[in-house]
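explain this.
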Amino acid sequence: MIEFTREGAIWQATINRADKANSLTHDMLVSLAQFMEDAQSARAVILTGNGKVFSAGADLKEAQAGLAVSDIWERLSGAIAALPGLSICALNGTLAGGAMGMALACDMRISVAESKFFYPVMKLGFLPQPSDPARMSALIGPSRTKLILMGGQKITAEEALMFGLVDRIVAPEDLLEMAYAIAADTVAASPTVATGIKAMCDAAQKSADLP
């Protein structure tokens, strides 16, 4: 249900459970986390999905059995955030619930215009994963983060672009081509230069977050 491919220095993970809106089971999350933890040598990592939904979040039955509050979500997002290479989330459709964390942990997000974005933790009675509010606030600010997490608002791709939650809107047929094109310069550059630029950007963000 997760497809893993490698094209040279670019590693790709594709969520492939379209008949269940790409909802995620514990085993799928473990596979994704292990893939990201193993991707230290990748110059770029692309995360995407098949079908018209990127991911609806946790599988409903497993969520009710405890997956919604499992630490596997944090393990996955932490592994993505720790990647030395460029990470790109290519959103083929709607992003919902706990799946938001893996997208937020990527260096950038590109999306098709049909996507919707929502994270209904208050409605469902759960707290978001610990790192998600901080990462979302760093991208779109605390007020808009509360709009999504506390106001329960579903936002469109155009709003997500305006907010800064996604970086570019792409036609569905061009989504993966665009992701690979964005990764091309990083892959072609000296590894020292590429990882150095990412480290500088990350350090600048941490400095900006200081009171």
